[in-house]
């Protein structure tokens, strides 16, 4: 019976951004800083977890960035849906180098030219000592391909804003800068995207991007 069900159940890749942190709230650059969820972030994590249970998600394969804000979000989901949870540095947010811990508004003045180039969505630009969006896309895309859902399986990747947006541009074969400027692939805290995928060809059969019904 389980083999028959696996042949008919949808094969899904779900991308989830972590809940809010104090750095998110105060518009401070995070990158690889290991900032925990704040009170609202923990509430958001529980809301998306309950929402996934209501959607009928059971026993997913949960894979999370090893940064605590993502891992705590994934733990909340696991508590509601079950499944196995593992952490991977490959799912971390973009490294923002020397900018990490600084205020976005202050960087717009103190490092104006580079700040403008980076936030124009140019995938080749990196913060001083950090990564480019292109490098992040390659890192997270390689992970997704290596951990692709099997037939009838749901895989949930819990990651970060730029990392998820960059991954979606690769999966959906979109131009990163165009999508970055439009904001189409940017996710609110605990926003998620559901991709129905072919387990063999890795074709994206259907997509729902940036969903937040649990927050509305």
List the main descriptive attributes of the protein structure presented here.
single chain; 216 residues; alpha/beta; Rossmann fold; 6-stranded mixed β-sheet; 9 helices; disordered N terminus
Write up this protein.
The chain has about 220 residues and is an alpha/beta fold. It has a single domain, classed as Rossmann fold (3-Layer(aba) Sandwich), CATH 3.40.50. It is built from 9 helices and 6 strands, in the order αβααβαβαααβααββ. A 6-stranded mixed β-sheet has the order 3-2-4-1-5-6. Helix 4 links the parallel strand 2 and strand 3. It is globular and about 50 Å long. The N terminus is likely disordered.
Write the layout of secondary structure elements.
Elements: H1 2-8, E1 12-17, H2 22-26, H3 39-54, E2 61-65, H4 68-81, E3 84-88, H5 104-110, H6 112-119, H7 133-146, E4 154-159, H8 161-171, H9 176-182, E5 192-197, E6 204-211
Parallel strand pairs: 1-4, 2-3, 2-4
Antiparallel strand pairs: 1-5, 5-6
Helix pairs in contact: 3-4, 5-6, 7-8
Largest sheet, in brief, is: 6 strands, mixed
Strand proportion:
15-25%
What is the second-level CATH architecture? 3-Layer(aba) Sandwich
Q: Supply Rg.
A: 17 Å
CATH class: Alpha Beta
Distance between the termini: 38 Å
Number of strands: 6
Helix content: 40-55%
Poorly predicted runs = 1-7
Helix-strand string: HEHHEHEHHHEHHEE
Question: What is the domain total for the residues?
Answer: 1
Mean pLDDT: 95
Structural class: alpha/beta
CATH third-level topology: Rossmann fold
**Count of discrete alpha- or pi-helical segments spanning 4 or more residues:** 9
What overall geometry do the principal axes of the alpha carbons give?
A: globular
If strands are numbered along the chain, what order do they take across the biggest sheet? 3-2-4-1-5-6
